Amino acid sequence: MANRKHQGGYLTIFSADGTELYGELADAVWDAEESDGGENDIFSGLASEGTFEAFRKLNMDGIEHVAYKFEANGETSSGQGRLLALERAAAPASGMIRVERV
Length: 102
Fold this sequence. Notes:
The structure is a single chain. By secondary structure, the protein is mostly beta strands. It has one helix at residues 49-60; strands spanning 2-15, 21-35, 38-48, 65-72, 75-83, 87-88, 94-101. The longest helix is centred in the middle third of the chain and has 12 residues, at 49-60.
């Protein structure tokens, strides 16, 4: 079960070393999901078709470790994350990009 920490945020995803911008997602959310290992922070945002395809290529290239920056309501969280499986969204020509804090 997820506990919503913030919504309506802005999520920026970079290469793991922070030198390359992979994508910027508006209307992003920060959820805390419970698992057997404890609480996991998950950042997600809706991507346009072009951005979704760019992340799909990253997945196909085996890139899973990224850096992220999430901003909402005057708070910022940034650090290292793991790019999770991409999900097609209900909206046409879009998909959900998810990053788990590591």
